[in-house]
Amino acid sequence: MEHTNSANSVSLQPQGYILVKLVGKQDFLSMDEVAKQCKELTDQIRMQRKPILGLVDFSQDQGFSTGTNKAVMRALEEIEYDRIAMFGTNAVLGEVTKTVIAALGKADRTKVFGTREEALAWLLMRDPVHGYGN
């Protein structure tokens, strides 16, 4: 199995959300590494008693495999989060992602958007129940 590049990045943004940029063709190993980095950041944020918010950028992603899908599903199951917004996916991947999210029972806090602007607007909107957002 060819391992993908390490151009993916996971970083905590000044607005308080985790930004995940996926670059190039993904496989199980690359997505597993991204998940580990996300888990480290979510643990830090949780210790500060802040909401766990994530923005996933698929705009430079060149495709997923069965192994990738498995790694993503595992990460979405294992990492506790308040909201994740995804954008930049192609239509097929977007529909598959929505189906996986619904199957995991997380459709209310995990959404797929066409643009970064739409994704950020939803991600950072005020949540009167949980008290986070703008």
Please, could you describe this protein's structure?
The protein is α/β, with parallel strands linked by helices and 134 residues long. The chain has helices at residues 28-47, 66-78, 91-103, 116-123; strands at 9-12, 18-24, 53-61, 83-87, 110-113. The chain has four helices and five strands. A five-stranded mixed sheet has the order 1-2-3-4-5, sandwiched between helices. Helix 1 packs parallel to helix 2. Mean pLDDT is 82; it is low at 1-5.
Gist?
With 134 residues, the chain is α/β, with parallel strands linked by helices.
List the helices and strands and how they pair.
Blueprint: E1 9-12, E2 18-24, H1 28-47, E3 53-61, H2 66-78, E4 83-87, H3 91-103, E5 110-113, H4 116-123
